[in-house]
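Here's my example:
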Amino acid sequence: MAGAGWVPHDSIGYVDWSKAGRARLPNLKPSTKSISPRLPVALLGRIKIAANKRDVPYQSLIKTWLAEKAGCR
């Protein structure tokens, strides 16, 4: 057995790549990155009120609004 458990063989003898298909991962969530935008206190308060009226977390509402504005949805 090789160092970290890798077998030093090619997959060509085990897999017929001509029959391979593209994998579909419908439930895979896109990668995210944390950011720290600075918002005026009053604006954040209004966003939280709007989120509360919609019964959603305020950060989710912000992401939805940003995606809509950027044309991502």
Q: What stands out?
A: The chain has two helices and no strands.
